[in-house]
Write a structure and sequence with these properties.
Elements (H helix, E strand, L loop, with lengths): L2 E2 L2 H14 L17 E8 L5 E9 L2 E10 L10 E4 L12 E7 L5 E6 L7 E7 L5 E4 L3
Parallel strand pairs: 2-8
Antiparallel strand pairs: 1-4, 2-5, 3-4, 3-6, 6-7, 8-9
Length: 141
């Protein structure tokens, strides 16, 4: 898998995604969120072609991770699901309110999701590219 960063290309894609998909975001109000430690985060791809996402994570409002992540194509006859592990061990994962921003560079789909503890003791994050090429954001327990 390839990783690369270009702040200019991310910002351009972000603006284009926001303009094209105004109103297609999901978020929660800060007052409803509680802190949670981040245990794991990864991108998975069920689509039959390689896909690239621009992924950023903020911890209590501070940017701690941003990458263009390429997940290999789904291969039903080979090794199955394409995936990419986000290296959460490289930044502070102690309890916090996490804000995830994901831009699907092939479709322009854009998500902003705020993640807190709710009833979980730790937070796991899965960003999935579904078989229909739509994004799915999950927090597996």
């Amino acid at each position: 898998m390839q990783r690369g960063r270009s702040r200019r290309s991310f910002l351009t894609a972000l603006v284009l995604g926001l303009v094209g998909l105004a109103g297609c975001t999901q978020s929660r109000d800060d007052s409803d969120s509680e802190a949670a430690p981040l245990a794991s985060a990864y991108v998975s791809n069920e689509y039959p072609e390689e896909r690239t996402l621009s992924v950023s994570l903020e911890r209590d409002g501070e940017l701690v991770y941003w990458e263009n992540v390429t997940a290999d194509a789904y291969d039903a006859e080979g090794d199955g699901l394409g995936s990419y592990q986000i290296p959460v061990d490289e930044f502070d994962t102690s309890p916090a309110v996490w804000t995830l921003e994901v831009l699907h560079t092939h479709t322009g789909e854009f998500w902003v999701v705020e993640l807190g503890a709710d009833e979980l003791t730790e937070l796991g994050l899965r960003i999935n590219i579904a078989r229909d090429d739509d994004l799915e954001i999950m927090t597996p327990v």
